Amino acid sequence: MLKHFIPAIRITLVLMILTGLLYPGTVTGLSQLLFRQQANGSLIAKNGRIVGSSLIGQNFTRPEYFHPRPSAAGAGYDASASSGSNLGPTSAKFIHGTIRVDDKKKEVVDFEGINLRIVHYCLENGIPYESSAPLNQFKDAAGNLDDVNLIKAFSHDSAPLIFTPKAPIPADAVTGSGSGLDPHISPANAAAQAARVARARGVSVDRVNPLIARSTEAPSLRMLGDPRVNVLQLNLALDQHFRSPNASAARLAESSQIRPWANSRRQ
């Protein structure tokens, strides 16, 4: 019996050395030598501190930054909960959104829905629209749009709210990616946001557009996919070229929404 075990043990040791040590060691060494940036996660640094990865999106909400596409990953761009909404184009929830009652017995938004996203996208970026009812009637006491009432209006059985943009809305502006972590937006989405960003930064759109062009990546191998804009890299370029008009030099770092990655996974 021993004569059968000895070859098996030898083969096991040889394979363990080959597949457990030599192969991964060779691949790791070559990747660090030839593709060091990619092998280490395509990390992006600002002022010597890691602020993110070019492969994983982050959420930006301030008007002086370009905003990413919606995300269904956890609370939004949570890399530990990568997911899409798994809702189809005929889903009422996907189109109109849904509400729920929280622990404090208050109605809150459960899922935004395409219609609500289109409303906010138009208002944020100054896109003209037509509405079957004045949006002012959906504002709260503070003058902000009440998303719960808007979702109810869109879902009304007999007289639903009809909101129609007068300009095309890029699909990626109101829909999430399959992973919920897409770091890119389309050039059309970036162009639609350029005027808002320029206004918030106190500069002309003509000074922002070249940054969009420089941040636009060509399709993979020049034929796979579409041109795309990396949101984090574009926003870093904005901070490098223009600072917020309300931020003093001493407060410039604190005024940025781009922070060390551990603190900026969900803004």
List the helices and strands and how they pair.
Elements: H1 2-34, H2 36-39, E1 43-46, E2 49-53, H3 92-96, E3 98-101, E4 107-111, H4 114-125, E5 129-131, H5 147-154, E6 163-165, H6 171-174, E7 184-185, H7 187-201, H8 205-215, E8 216-217, E9 228-230, H9 231-241, H10 252-255
Antiparallel strand pairs: 1-2, 3-4, 5-6, 7-9, 8-9
Helix pairs in contact: 7-8, 8-9
- Continuous helix count: 10
Over all CA atoms, what is the radius of gyration? 24 Å
Ranges where pLDDT stays below 50 over 5 or more residues in a row are 248-254, 263-267
Strand coverage percent? 5-15%
Q: Considering DSSP H and I runs of 4 or more, what fraction of the residues is helical?
A: 40-55%
Major beta sheet summary:
3 strands, antiparallel
Strand order of the largest sheet: 7-9-8
Tell the overall outline: extended
Account of the protein in words:
The protein is of the alpha+beta class. It has two domains: 41-83 and 181-267, no CATH class; 85-175, no CATH class. 40% of the residues lie in helices and 12% in strands. It has ten helices and nine strands. The chain has helices at 2-34, 36-39, 92-96, 114-125, 147-154, 171-174, 187-201, 205-215, 231-241, 252-255, and strands spanning 43-46, 49-53, 98-101, 107-111, 129-131, 163-165, 184-185, 216-217, 228-230. The protein has a three-stranded antiparallel β-sheet with strand order 7-9-8. A hairpin with a 2-residue loop joins strand 1 and strand 2 (49-53). Helix 7 (187-201) packs antiparallel against helix 8 (205-215) and helix 8 (205-215) crosses helix 9. The longest helix is centred in the first third of the chain and has 33 residues, at 2-34. The protein is extended. Mean pLDDT is 87; it is low at 248-254 and 263-267.
